[in-house]
Automatic annotation (TrEMBL):
The keyword Oxidoreductase does not apply. Keywords: Cell membrane, Membrane, Transmembrane, Transmembrane helix. InterPro entries: ABC3_permease_C, MacB_PCD, Macrolide_Exporter_MacB. Residues 291-404, 673-774 form the ABC3 transporter permease C-terminal domain. Residues 20-245 form the MacB-like periplasmic core domain. It comes from Arcicella aquatica. It is a multi-pass membrane protein. Pfam families: FtsX, MacB_PCD. Coiled coil: none annotated. This is FtsX-like permease family protein. The chain crosses the membrane at residues 21-41, 286-310, 331-359, 379-406, 427-447, 671-694, 715-739, 759-779. It is found in: Cell membrane. The keyword Transmembrane helix applies.
Length: 794
């Protein structure tokens, strides 16, 4: 029976090629979107889940309570905490400190005079043996104990290959910043892609003080988001028990500042998603993508139902003859299910092929390395998806088609109500249009917010500004670099600084103004030279600029800090002393600058102090004249290389660095654009099915109307008014839902657009335009049909 059903189903589908093609295309596109989202969601939900101690691994995070109204969240913790936790809290099995994202020039000696140099910006970390006891790493050579020794380094297989080729790296030496010699004491297998701990070089913690002497490693008050503490709790220990003990722990080690420093545990599963502690992607974004994936599959299924029931009229006689020859309803039902199964199966195979082709594009957009791995999760998802789509798209049409009355089927007199009643079909199309408009409105909101990011006044100039590294501890070299750059006619201005005006780092701390008590809010800090304001176009609104000095002797502050101090006249602060806890320095305020955005638009502009400290400069901002060209950059590179011949040159543009603040929003924008187009296209296929159905059922009516004098526009309106009503109903349903969703998303930004009515109007007319184009062909074809022929057919 099954074999017979499949044979008949294949013949039927081949006979109705257009119907089959439209269904396969619509379903495969919907399933492709669903599969792409599944791969992306699966990847993110599996991040760091492969560690055998996953359930018991936590990060110790710090909440800084500056006042009742000001709480800051930081994923970092002080270095002395590791030893203290292991001594004081018996529930902790292991504890480890890691200093991540160190940027170094790494030299690989090839001979006494030849050294290959590489710039490693983020993949270097300092840690100890316990890190490898907490997390799972596969050691190819060496063992974790080498991390307790000074001047040792462990490389991943990938980095060892990069540095030493096919040679055995064990025992070879690595130079750090052309000064420190480290011995390769271990090689690790490359880490899986689904991890947030993407480190390729681990330097022993014993080397930290030597290579990084400026780090406040023994200071309990020094919190840096790149310096983290991880713990492995013993089995059956609740994190809440640990957190309760941390209250007394803070009092013991932070003393009078215990009310400021509040430490607690964050589980490994939360690290990837929590925006409060620098999560990579919000969990809300994951669920939004899941909902969009469901939208795509449902839209494709609705499209199938519409087309299948529209096709039903053409199968009246086939059903009647089969029933007359003895076919039972159940036999016909399973025959139609066999057709559906073939279509869904073909669509799923095509969707898998399309997914494989589009995964590299999705990987590029999401900055991940996504692959279609055949495992039990994917197989289970495909089986469930296959069964669900057959159920959603096949059950109802099969039930309707197999239920035709024999006599009416042979006469071709089955009514609209017998063939997927028109109200049901209208409802399905309304659902499609609603989903389409939800995604269109969402796309417009994200686009406008992104446009706001690009064009809003940041309070400084970001155009034609080149950012290059410098080494502030080498005073004589930075002075030479400055003089050489000024001789280049394409260079308008140069400024040395610790960080550019806008940077995601959160350096800063408590301040005390004019002998008052410590303020109940922190101030961010920037170290820069006297050219900082002019180079970056930052406006001085009171007082004067800072003067050149080797160490901090005076401060500029921003007008936001003046306001937070409760002072209305910016001139009042000039000459007053301010103590900055981060530097442990008290110095006079000599000027006030206009407030500018120091971080992304997710956060409000914060109080700021600016001082000059030459040996802390890490970047130079170069303002170029005219259009930026590769020739201009090459000249700057040559100058830089002449000053720092032992280092690797790199550069970035300030506007590009700022754009990276919004990588997640850029990704969402691209995905919404693509998925909105997919939903619209699939929905138009469904609408085409509805129009085809109308044309079949209204053949006689159209003929009579034309005989009675109806014009072509009047016939077109007969079709137009049907879908216009559906678009309006869908718009009324989608608008409030879209407004609530978009408004909720915009709450993530301290600076955001207002959701204007024009977004909804444009969405409505875009949907209407696509619907009109879809309907026009079939409607015009029916309107131009010879009425004599249509009446004879009836």
């Amino acid at each position: 029976m099954l074999k017979n059903h499949l044979k008949i189903a294949i013949r039927t589908l081949l006979r109705h090629k257009n119907y089959t093609l439209i269904n396969v295309v619509g379903l495969s596109l919907g399933l492709t979107g669903g599969l792409l989202i599944f791969v992306f969601v699966k990847f993110n939900l599996s991040v760091d889940g492969y560690h055998k101690n996953f359930d018991n691994i936590y990060r110790v995070v710090s909440d800084l309570q500056f006042s009742k109204d000001h709480l800051e969240h930081d994923n970092g913790s002080p270095y002395p905490m590791v030893k203290a936790i292991q001594n004081d809290i018996p529930e902790v099995q292991k504890a480890s400190y890691i200093a991540k994202n160190m940027s170094y020039t790494v030299g690989i000696p090839k001979s006494t005079t030849n050294v290959d140099r590489y710039l490693e910006k983020t993949g270097i970390a300092y840690t100890d043996k316990n890190w490898f006891d907490i997390f799972d790493y596969q050691w190819i050579a060496g063992n974790p104990t080498v991390m307790n020794e000074p001047n040792t380094v462990v490389l991943t297989k990938k980095l060892a290959k990069k540095y030493f080729g096919n040679e055995n790296p064990m025992g070879k030496t690595v130079q750090v910043n052309n000064k420190f010699i480290l011995k390769v004491a271990g090689v690790l297998n490359d880490y899986p892609e689904n991890t947030d701990n993407k480190m390729d070089m681990f330097i022993s913690m014993e080397s930290f003080k030597t290579i990084e002497p400026k780090q406040h490693i023994e200071d309990w008050g020094w919190i840096d988001s790149n310096k983290e503490v991880f713990v492995l709790l013993k089995d059956n220990v609740a994190s809440a028990d640990f957190d309760r003990k941390m209250i007394a722990f803070s009092k013991k080690y932070h003393g009078a500042d215990a009310n400021v420093f509040k430490h607690h545990l964050q589980h490994l599963s939360d690290i990837h998603f929590n925006p409060l502690y620098r999560g990579i992607i919000r969990i809300e974004t994951i669920w939004v993508l899941v909902i969009i994936g469901v939208f795509l599959v449902i839209t494709a299924c609705i499209n199938f139902v519409n087309l299948a029931t529209a096709q039903a009229l053409k199968r009246n006689k086939e059903v009647g003859i089969r029933k007359l020859l003895g076919s039972k309803r159940s036999h016909l039902f399973w025959l139609f299910i066999a057709e559906v199964t073939l279509i869904v199966g073909s669509s799923l195979v095509l969707a898998l092929a399309l997914t494989q082709q589009f995964l590299p594009v999705l990987s590029d957009w999401t900055h991940t390395n996504l692959t279609l791995i055949i495992d039990y999760q994917l197989v289970s998802f495909l089986v469930i998806l296959f069964a669900l789509v057959i159920l959603l798209s096949g059950f109802y049409p099969a039930f309707v088609l197999s239920g035709f009355n024999v006599t009416k089927a042979l006469k071709g007199n089955n009514t609209n109500q017998q063939i997927a009643g028109f109200p049901i079909r209208r409802s399905l199309v309304v659902v499609q249009f609603t989903l389409s408009q939800l995604l269109i409105i969402g796309t417009f909101v994200v686009f406008q917010q992104m446009d706001f990011f690009k064009n809003a006044d940041l309070g400084f100039n970001k155009e034609a500004l080149l950012i290059i590294p410098v080494f502030g501890e080498r005073h004589n070299q930075t002075d030479v670099l400055l003089n050489k750059l000024r001789q280049d006619p394409d260079v308008k201005n140069v400024s040395f600084c610790f960080r550019p005006p806008a940077d995601n780092s959160g350096y800063g701390g408590s301040i005390r103004y004019a002998g008052r008590d410590w303020e109940g809010f922190p101030a961010r800090s920037k170290l820069a030279d006297t050219n900082f304001l002019e180079t970056f176009g930052i406006k001085l609104i009171a007082g004067r600029n800072i003067v050149t000095s080797d160490s901090i002797r005076e401060f500029l502050i921003n007008e936001e800090l003046v306001a937070r101090l409760g002072i209305k006249d910016v001139n009042e602060v000039i000459g007053k002393e301010i103590e900055v806890g981060e530097f442990g320095i008290k110095a006079p305020i000599v000027g006030v600058v206009r407030s500018f955005h120091q971080r992304s638009f997710h956060e409000k502009i914060e109080p700021l102090v600016i001082g000059m400290q030459k040996n802390s400069f890490q970047f130079a901002g170069i303002k170029l004249s005219g259009q930026v060209t590769s020739d201009k950059i090459d000249k700057i590179k040559a100058i830089w290389q002449s000053v720092y011949p032992e280092n690797v040159f790199e550069f970035s543009f300030l506007d590009e660095r700022i754009a990276k603040f919004y990588e997640q929003e850029t990704m969402i924008s691209k995905l919404l654009n693509v998925f909105a187009l997919l939903v619209i296209f699939i929905g138009c296929l469904g609408l085409y099915g509805l129009v085809a159905f109308m044309a079949e059922t209204k053949t006689k009516e159209i003929g009579i109307r034309k005989v009675l004098g109806a014009s072509v526009p009047q016939i077109l309106w007969l079709f137009g008014k049907e879908f216009a009503k559906l678009v309006i109903i869908a718009f009324l349903i989608a608008s409030p839902v879209a407004w609530l969703s978009a408004n909720q998303w915009l709450q993530n930004f301290a600076y955001r657009i207002n959701i204007n009515l024009d977004i909804f109007v444009v969405s409505f007319f875009v949907t209407l335009l696509f619907a009109t184009i879809t309907v026009s062909y079939q409607a015009t074809k029916s309107a131009l049909m010879n009425p004599v022929k249509s009446l004879r057919t009836e």
